[in-house]
Write a structure and sequence with these properties.
Blueprint: H1 23-40, H2 43-47, H3 51-57, H4 59-78, H5 83-104, H6 106-131, H7 140-153, H8 157-167, H9 173-195, H10 204-228, H11 238-260, H12 266-296, H13 312-331, H14 339-359, H15 361-364, H16 379-387, H17 395-419, H18 422-432, H19 434-439, H20 444-470, H21 480-493, H22 498-522, H23 539-553, H24 562-568, H25 570-575, E1 598-601, E2 613-615
Antiparallel strand pairs: 1-2
Helix pairs in contact: 1-4, 1-5, 4-5, 4-22, 5-6, 6-17, 6-20, 6-21, 6-22, 7-13, 7-14, 7-20, 8-12, 9-12, 10-11, 10-12, 13-20, 16-17, 17-20, 18-20, 21-22
Length: about 625
């Protein structure tokens, strides 16, 4: 039984009563805001409304109406209402009203897709930052990987790459393919085998055998490849071999020096052997790709506009895999770092991806960008959209809107399941106290890599959707400001809180794309506002001031995670609102004068199986 005056919800503070039922208020709010949205985005109807229509055309009012409408989904989540009303408002807003308003104003569909793309990015970064406590400032790199994976293959850039490999094969395509396959299989098998070995299982001589054998294999592979490949009319220079062997010799020399001092270097040698095997696997994979390109170069003319759009669904999976692999590769070198050091190095690695995209002209077209990029071809959906009154140029946007909605639902489900799983508890343990988590048996490297890979995979699939929607990607789309923007969404909404992160993404996107530009446009011709002080010119300043105010007034975020909220306000509770809970638990029985139900008052047990204290 719940005590009178107390909430039945254990997450609410003690003494707070149950929230009133707001079913009909929720439905009324939904009807009013939906009507306003549909009217304000129907230009023909707005022109007939006179002064009221002129008011609705105002950019500030339009942004306010959109924000009010999107609040429907928030209130359906927060308010106490009948489940059928929550489902009606949530599904009706997202699946009925928004598409209908978007049919009259395509920019509204575009805005909705942008909000959901950033919501998925924020959910992915929330795993890395909010759950695992790893401050990643290069998160946009994974977004870029997903965008370029689809953008390169679904555009004329792919034909240019095939044409280049046809003109510069270096070796026969089949030879390259076979050598790459052999190297990849050998490297991957060696890496997986070495992963199962432990340093203590190796003898001192056996620990040296592995890296020396792999180094010898590297030299042998170089001479085999040198006999097969050419650089134009000449063979590979032997200087390339020495350039490769210098870090090998330095590493082995340092290990030998430490071994001479009596130190155990078995772990170092085993890790080095794993690195060489992994390097062989990566090199073999690159040769495989090159062999496929050389063999397929004859079809460059037939792929002048990119691959068939029906491969869109396959590339959804490939973009997830590619971003996850890059996430692991970026995570591996930085796992021993924490805090500011981790933030700086992830920032640097994220910038490396952008600089590579800017300089690899053959693959990414450099600063000019890749365009035009195809989207999925779904004829039956186009027919359905046409029957619903959508024009041909709106079919793709409507399709991407519904697809992103499904992906958001899947991402949210995965996040919730992970948060409640052993992995989620391990992430939280690492965030709270890494040393304590390791002492309790949490594998730090594996758990952190899972966080990096999972967060990166969400960014990868959204990068592909972004490329399909924009039909254009360039390195400027993935600069440092994008990473900071996604991080601000996570912090503003509430780190570790899934609904909070989605709300943060919606608020920040609306501010950047509608509210602040709307204020700037509405005040552009006001005579008493100097042009230098126009809000349109000071969007970054206003946004920064909003973030600073938010951090001062509500540091836990708009919809905070309960655990995070208690952490931030623990001192305040200790100073002012502490309550004596001893009467609610077993400890109260020790001081109540009733010792019939207590085994011991904290004394040592008299018998082996007796309890040291507490109720029966």
């Amino acid at each position: 039984m719940t005590a009178p005056g107390l909430s039945a919800n254990p997450t609410l503070p003690r003494g707070v009563g149950a929230a009133p039922d707001r079913t009909w208020l929720l439905l009324l709010f939904f009807i009013v805001t939906s009507s306003l949205l549909l009217v304000s985005h129907n230009s023909g109807l707005v022109d007939k409304l006179g002064g009221f229509g002129t008011l609705l055309k105002n950019p500030i009012v339009e942004a306010f109406v959109v924000s009010l409408f999107l609040a429907n989904v928030l209130f359906a989540y927060l308010w106490r209402a009948a489940p059928w009303a929550k489902a009606l408002v949530g599904l009706g807003s997202l699946l009925l009203v928004l598409p209908l308003a978007g049919r009259a104003d395509t920019s509204l569909l575009d805005l909705s897709i942008q909000i959901m793309i950033f919501a998925a990015l924020a959910l992915g970064l929330n795993i890395v930052v909010g759950l695992a406590g790893l401050l990643d400032l290069g998160y946009v790199a994974f977004f870029a990987v997903g965008a370029y994976v689809w953008g390169i293959f679904a555009s004329p850039r792919f034909a240019e790459i095939l044409k280049y490999f046809g003109e510069n094969p270096g070796a026969s395509g089949m030879t390259t393919l076979l050598l790459g396959l052999l190297t990849f299989v050998a490297g991957l098998a060696g890496y997986l085998t070495l992963q199962k070995r432990r340093p203590e299982s190796l003898t001192r001589s056996g620990a040296w055998t592995l890296p020396l054998a792999l180094s010898a294999a590297l030299v042998g592979w170089f001479f085999v490849a040198r006999s097969l490949f050419t650089l134009g009319d000449g063979r590979w220079s032997l200087w390339a071999l020495w350039f490769t062997l210098v870090p090998v010799l330095i590493t082995l020399g340092l290990a030998a020096l430490n071994s001479g001092k009596g130190r155990d270097v078995r772990a170092t040698l085993l890790n080095y052997s794993r690195a060489l095997a992994a390097l062989a696997a990566v090199g073999g994979l690159l040769l495989l790709v090159r062999g496929v390109m050389v063999l397929g170069s004859g079809g460059a003319a037939s792929l002048a506009s990119g691959i068939d759009p029906s491969f869109f669904w396959l590339f959804l999976a490939l973009s997830i895999a590619a971003a996850a692999i890059v996430g692991v590769l970026i995570g591996l070198p930085v796992l021993k770092l924490k805090g500011d050091y981790l933030a700086i190095i992830t920032l640097g690695l994220g910038e490396v991806i952008r600089v590579l995209a800017n300089n690899l002209d053959l693959y990414s077209a450099g600063s000019q960008g890749v365009t035009p990029i195809k989207s999925a071809s779904v004829p039956w959906f186009d027919r359905l959209a046409g029957n619903l009154g959508f024009s041909a140029d709106q079919h793709n946007l409507l399709f991407l809107y519904l697809l992103v909605l499904l992906i958001i639902a899947a991402v949210l489900t995965v996040n919730i399941r992970l948060d409640r799983s052993r992995i989620g508890r391990a992430w939280i343990a690492i965030r709270d106290d890494e040393i304590a988590a390791q002492a309790m048996g949490v594998p730090l490297v594996q758990t952190k890599l899972i966080a990096f890979a999972t967060g990166a995979s969400f960014a990868g699939v959204m990068g592909m959707i972004f490329a399909a929607k924009q039909t254009f990607v360039s390195p400027e789309s993935f600069n440092f400001n994008q990473s900071i923007g996604v991080l601000s969404m996570v912090i503003l909404g509430g780190m570790g809180s899934f609904p909070g992160v989605i709300l943060g993404a919606a608020v920040v996107t609306l501010l950047n794309l509608r509210v602040l530009p709307g204020i700037g446009e509405a005040t552009a011709n006001v005579s008493w506002i100097p042009q230098q002080a126009n809000p349109g010119q000071l969007q970054r300043l206003i946004f920064g001031a909003i973030l600073v105010a938010m951090m001062l007034l509500r540091p836990e975020g708009l919809l905070p995670n309960r655990r995070r909220q208690l952490e931030l306000h623990h001192d305040e509770d200790d100073r002012g609102n502490q309550e004596d809970d001893s009467g609610q638990g077993n400890a109260g029985a020790l001081g109540a004068g009733n010792t019939a139900d207590v085994y011991s008052r904290g004394l040592a047990p008299a018998k082996e199986n007796d309890h040291a204290g507490g109720a029966k």
